[in-house]
Amino acid sequence: MPDYLIPYEPPLDVLLELAELSEPALEFAQAAALVGEAFTLQEVARVQSVTALSMLSALEETIAAGVIGFRGKGLAFRSPGLRRKLNTRISAPVRQALLRGAPPHRPAEPAAVAPCTEARPKPPAATERSLPMGRMAEQAPESLMSALLLCRENPGRPLDPHTEVALSRALTQAPAPVGRAAGGDTDAAQILALFGPGETEQRDRARAIVATRGRSAVSVVAAMVLANLDWAAGRIDQALEWGHEALRMDQDALPVAWRPYPSHTLAVMLIHLGRFTEGEVHLARTRELAERLDHPWALAESSIARGQLLMGTGRTEKAEAEIRAGVARAQRVDAHLAAAHGLSLLSLMTLAQGHWSEAADQIWRARSEIVAQPGALRPARHDWADFRVTTAGMDAAGAVGLLVKRFPDLLTKASVFLLDAGGAAHLVRLCRAAGEKTLAAAVTRRAARLADQNAGHQGLAAAAGHAWGLLHQDADALEYAALQHSVPWAAAAASEDLGTMLLERRDGLAARRHLGTALEGYRAIGALASVTRVESLLRKAGGDGPRGAGKAVPAPVPASATATGPGRRPGRPSGSRPRSELTEIEYGIARLVAEGLTNQQVANRVSRSPHTVNYHLRQIYRKLDVDSRVKLARVLH
């Protein structure tokens, strides 16, 4: 059975509450489930295309049944489990039809839902019953800790009161490692404070713990929190350093169920950066620990991360199988955030294969998993997949309008540009097509700033160069991106963008060469929708058609492949002058570099991005057989 068909079985009281509803009341509740955990009567009326007045009787019935209650000036479901069950009752065709029109999900407000005042029995106090946040609150502490420790995109967001109470209870009940004294309430309070409001306050608390608590369990968690905070802020080297620091600490100090997460967190960060070999090493450690400890949450999460690694390296069939297995495991143990992550990844793969309906269904199921996840933990990686699937097939203006209104965080969060190597380029491409050049420029600046702040990461430079090349229609920058992207999907997209631009400039020969490269890249990773699109472009460029287009056009050869032997550079013809060996733009850049200007200063002079200048400098070094600025200056003078 496919993972997304594994049924969700809510508690018996949830089923009884839904069974009491009449058909109009049930339809009202299902429409409300589309809006979010909290909603207004007017929002539900818009979904059902009726007046708010006509829905009053249905609203009264759902309140009387204890399904919905008042929250502030609006309404809310009394339990996320109710909303999730309602989502599963909506058929796939109806979901797909409503997906684009439904108001966005909104995080729950901290205020509790007002208790029902009808004849139903009064709910017991919070100390006597499970909290109204799904079954996860009732599980072992690892379920909550895994969700929090893996929440890399928004670690500074405070916990809602329900989650805070549940986490406190889980921490105080967490078993101490064998042979060690339990930390009790003190450790629980310190860990809980790490997830309190305010990023600055979180960082200060975490640093103080690392400095004073030695190599304790609390220190490991604090180091992981610091890694996540730096990652979300775009400070990649600092994030990786804190991740390594967490691993250097005494892992035996952690409760057994938490031990796989330091290596897992580091592995996922490395995978996002395209450093797949390093990521695989840490992922193998995570998996070994999870198997040895029989840890179902970590096993599910490591399978999904393994699938993400395979996806990043273009092995899509194996990636899909691994992710599906991870989602199935996650759903069996209510690891909702992991299941949502896996379903989001599957939706992107399915969309690339050209199956929008199935991708929409997977996104819908991911939404349901997030609804069941306690706390304000809606991850940016899900929003990115949601945006890509929801806007597939939309015109550019409609897609950008939805981006600004419903997914504004995708334009501002640094971590979003780390999720997808081609993400910044996709946003720039969309904004340009919609005529929103100011917005496209803002995205490009954000990607460039992230790359400049993390100069040692090739993937970020390639992503920034890709965005710059699209914004300014810079062929050199797009070629640089196509060569430097470590992720096959992004490299193929850069080649397609370059080929499309050259086609518009009526350079058919060059366009066919780069489009052919893109076609072969898309074929290799099974991106069938992109294959069809590029085949059409090749026909416009005068290629051989779908069958021969990719074979008839040779792929561009990276500069490193032109060496005369292993580790050797091709030598310059004796007696030749630098001026004759370099293009006009290369010679101009070489002269400025020889004068002592930095890449940024050169970029300002020649009206190019620093990443384009870096690309040209590599070509200059290769052509002149030099490996430093000093040697370049000697050759030119």
TrEMBL record:
Keyword field: DNA-binding
Classification via InterPro entries: Sig_transdc_resp-reg_C-effctor, TPR-like_helical_dom_sf, Tscrpt_reg_LuxR_C, WalR-like, WH-like_DNA-bd_sf
Domain HTH luxR-type: from-to ranges: 575-637
Highest taxon above the source species: Bacteria
UniProt biased composition (Low complexity): 549-577
Cross-referenced CDD domains: LuxR_C_like (cd06170)
Name this polypeptide is given: LuxR C-terminal-related transcriptional regulator
A Pfam family: GerE
Annotated stretches, region: Disordered: 101-129, 540-581
